[in-house]
Each structure stands twice: as C-alpha cells, then as structure tokens.
Amino acid sequence: MLPVSTLSFFAPAKINLFLAITGRRPDGYHNLVSVVAPLAWGDTLHVEAAKEGWSLDCDVADVPVDETNLVLKAAQAFARATGEAGGARFRLEKRIPMGAGLGGGSSDAVAALRALNALVGQPLGTERLAALAAELGSDCPLFLADGPVVMRGRGERVTPLPAEAAARLRGRRVLVFKPAFGISTPWAYAQLAAQAPASYRPEVEAEGALTRWLEDPQAAVETLLLNSMEPPAFRKFVALPTLLDQLGKEFGLAPRLSGSGSACYALLPNTVDAGPVIAAIREAWGESAFVLDTRLL
Ligand code: C5P
Description:
The longest helix has 16 residues, at 104-119. The strands form two sheets. Strands 1, 2, 3, 4, 5, 6 and 8 form a seven-stranded mixed sheet that branches. This protein has 297 residues and is an alpha+beta fold. It has helices at residues 70-82, 104-119, 126-136, 163-169, 185-194, 203-215, 230-236, 239-251, 275-285; strands spanning 7-24, 30-50, 54-58, 87-93, 149-152, 157-160, 173-178, 226-227, 256-257, 264-267, 290-295. Helix 2 packs antiparallel against helix 3 (126-136). Helix 1 (70-82) links the parallel strand 3 (54-58) and strand 4. Bound molecules: cytidine-5'-monophosphate.
C-alpha cells in the first residue's frame, strides 16, 4: 500500500504522426512542424513530500536514477523557479522504452513538474510551467496539453489541435513496435544536418500539407503521416525499412517511424486481428522486440 500522502501521475508516451524538420536554427537546434498525439499508455510517477532533497527510485534497473534523469532535473528546475526549499521522493514505474522516439523521459519530466506543483499548492501557472518544460527538453511542452497538438519552433510552441481534427485522432488504435536497439536523438539530428539542405522540408510545404489536412474533415490521419527522420534512420538501421515494407505488402499497413526512432507504429482498424502482425514483427526483430497494441488519447 502506498502512503496516503503519495500522489500519482500518468506520464503518457507519444507518437509523431507528422514530423517535418524545416531547417537548422542559429542556436544549433532544428525548427520543426509536428503533429503529436499522446498514447493511452505510459509510465506512472509517484511522488511524496520529503523534508529536504530529491530522490528517485525506478522499477527498471537500467534507468539512471541520478541527476541525469529528467525527473530530478525537473525537480531542480522547479525549486529554482519557485524558491521551494522542501524535497520529494519520486518512484517511477517505467514502461516507455528509452531511445525510442516515444517521449518517455520528456513525459516523466512533465509529470514531475505537475507532481511538485500539486504537492506545494500550484505556485506555477500554465505559462511558467510551459517555460520550465521547454527548458528541460524540446519534447516536454507538448505533454502539458493532455491531447494531440501541433508543435512548432524547436518544440516550445504548442497548439492543441482544433476539436474537429483531434476527434479524427482520438481513440484510433495504434500498434507500436520497437527493435532491441535504440536511436540517439542528437545522432539523428546530426545526420539530417549533414545532408542539408536536401534533408529539410521547406516550412511553407510542411505548413501547406498540415493546413490541407486540418481543413478537410474527410481527410483521415493516414493521409497526413510523414517523418523527416526516416531517411537517415533507415539508411543506417536497415532492419527498420525492411520490416515496414513487409508489413505494408503483407498486411496493407502504412507503418512509420516515431520521432527519431527506433520505435515505429502502424494505425490499425479496430476489427483487425493484431496477432499475425505481431508474429511478423517478432519473426523479423526477435522475441526481445517491444510490441504494444494501444490507442491515441
Ligand atoms: O531538447 P532536447 O534536449 O530533447 O534535444 C536533444 C538534442 O536533439 C539536441 O541537443 C539537438 O541536438 C537535437 N534537437 C534539435 N532540434 C530540436 C530538438 C532536438 O536539433 N527541435
């Protein structure tokens, strides 16, 4: 039993349904236009107040629990921003694989900000939380939205999808699958930069494609899917395009990479038996492949 003073926060995973990287910025980051949806599945972060200092425990052995973990970085940022002197004990139930492009660390960080804010009487409003989240990582601000968003800039400009467009996403069934290896996000961005400008998608083109999808209520999400990260990831990690092509041919699916990978996803009709698809994934990538049948939130 958890003590009554323990608060628990769901930290969903995300997938990028549309990810157009439009160019490099003077600060070294990249500008992007992305449609991101949280999944109805993720980590859980428990927190309980402590007299002083922050600590983190995790149920998965290879997750770092020192100050390199974004949960503790979030706690430090929260303390600096609020002047709060108290501490907290975090316990992370880690489910989202690392190096996956599923936003696990970023989502945990936002859960930590929300948890601390709740623990000490909500001193930070939406804007200050958003600024802190952006400081912690480019993929953090999107997790404050609790639903599908359009993300721009380096990730700090987040707009909830209009209700009608969000309704085209919510509840859609998605199969998420990841090989045993991960892909480092800085590596993926460096590959894009090395192939510039061909690797970038002009911003007007990206915004045009997004606007056309937003303005057409009949346009299913399948017509939106895009990821600028696929060419560099697929060049090096050939196991990805090999399986994705196979799933297209055998099952008529249109699977994509999420973020910088290595997790991929395929939108599935509700009636489809995922069994044969999962069997094909395990046959190609081995039993250690991660597979998840879930829904967009
Ligand atoms: O912001 P975050 O720490 O998650 O980014 C990790 C790395 O990914 C950055 O150091 C940068 O190399 C790259 N990145 C980028 N443009 C973005 C987001 C991340 O170049 N919009």
